[in-house]
């Protein structure tokens, strides 16, 4: 979706969600995404993670959007 010169991509799942069960993950994936967005877009990009209703997780990434001339 394009909103106010920003490309917004949202992914939702209906799984258990964060913290429902113990995880053996390292937690590096989200940190890597945040660092990559900052490297490419500085402070003009964001990642928003929130609970999905009634269950699961919703993740939205927003980046600047501009039509090439």
How are the SSEs placed, and which strands pair?
Blueprint: E1 2-3, E2 6-12, H1 28-41, E3 46-51, E4 57-64
Antiparallel strand pairs: 1-2, 2-4, 3-4
Determine the number of helices (DSSP H or I, runs of at least 4 residues).
1
CA-to-CA gap between the ends? 20 Å
Going by helix content, strand content and strand pairing, the class is alpha+beta
**Any low-confidence stretches, pLDDT <50, length ≥5?**
none
Approximately how much beta-strand content do the residues carry? 25-35%
SSE pattern, N- to C-terminal: EEHEE
Largest sheet: 4 strands, antiparallel
Helix amount:
10-25%
Q: Overall pLDDT, averaged?
A: 90
Total strands: the figure is 4
Task: Please provide a written account of the structure.
With 69 residues, this protein is α+β, with helices and mostly antiparallel strands. The protein is built from 1 helix and 4 strands; from the N terminus they run E-E-H-E-E. The chain has a 4-stranded antiparallel beta sheet, covered by helices on one side. It is flat. The two termini are 20 Å apart.
Structure summarized in a few sentences:
The chain is an alpha+beta fold and 69 residues long.
Which keywords apply here?
69 residues, alpha+beta, 4-stranded antiparallel sheet, 1 helix, 4 strands
